[in-house]
Amino acid sequence: MTALARPDVRLWQSWSAALLEFGSEQVHGSGTIEVPLGVRSTTPRETCAYVVAELQRRADPTVPLENDMVRSDYFWVIDSDSDSDSDAGSEEVVGFIATRHDLTAFLLETGGHIGYSVRPSRRGEGHAGRALRLALEHLAGLGLDRVLITCDEDNEPSRRTIVAAGGVLEDVRERTMRFWVEPGQGRRQR
Questions:
Q1: How do residues 143-172 score in pLDDT, each as one tens digit?
Q2: Interior CA angle at 9 toward 5 and 142, to 5°?
Q3: Which of 58, 103, 119, 181 sits most deeply, having the most CB atoms within 10 A of its CB?
């Protein structure tokens, strides 16, 4: 079952395996853009702990952010085995999703309110669509009535995922497709 989980060091081995699968590909929605590829290739527990603390800081409304940052909630997309009684052993990190509370000029052009990715070995299983619907519910709970989601013009799977979640294409800017979604639509389409 696809679910969203707050980043947690207890899942560091699965988190590490997921990051390794991306290789040099950007891991949208993970908040790990600052983690150099050399470090990502080993992803020790300490790196995971650092990333988890940083993602928690970015979500904390009491912590001031740099001028170019917006408050964001980060989630790890997990696939949990409901038949298992073990804790972390029954959950696999299959992707990442970030929900941004506001938009900067850059995010309005190319980034949007939501960034997400699914690890290469788990693509095509529906995790992106289910995670996107859950993220839209989260943003609706924060009071957002309109959400921007973007994808590259040549990313057909992501385009289909966004449209299935209710995305309406506004335009294409610099090869970036810009879709608007009313968060409540995700709940109605189940």
A1: 999 999 999 999 999 999 999 999 999 999
A2: 30
A3: 181
User: Could you tell me which residues are beta bridge partners of residue 72?
Assistant: 100
Q: Classify 115 as helix, strand or coil.
A: strand
Quick one: tokens of 74? 């980060």
Return d(Cα 38, Cα 3) in angstroms, integer.
Answer: 29
pTM confidence score? 0.89
Answer yes or no: are the C-beta atoms of 132 and 116 closer than 8 Å. yes
DSSP 81: -
* Angle ∠(75,79,83) on CA atoms, nearest 5: 135
Q: How many CB atoms lie within 10 A of CB 129?
A: 19
- State how far the Cα of 31 lies from the Cα of 161, in Å rounded to an integer: 21
Q: Give alpha helix (H) positions in 60-164.
A: 105-106, 127-141, 156-164
Q: Report the distance separating Cα 32 and Cα 21, nearest Å.
A: 14
Pair 101, 87: CB distance under 8 Å: no
If pLDDT is split at 50, 70 and 90, which confidence band does 32 have?
confident
Residue 127: other Cβ atoms inside 10 A: 22
Q: 151 and 162 in contact (C-beta within 8 Å)?
A: yes
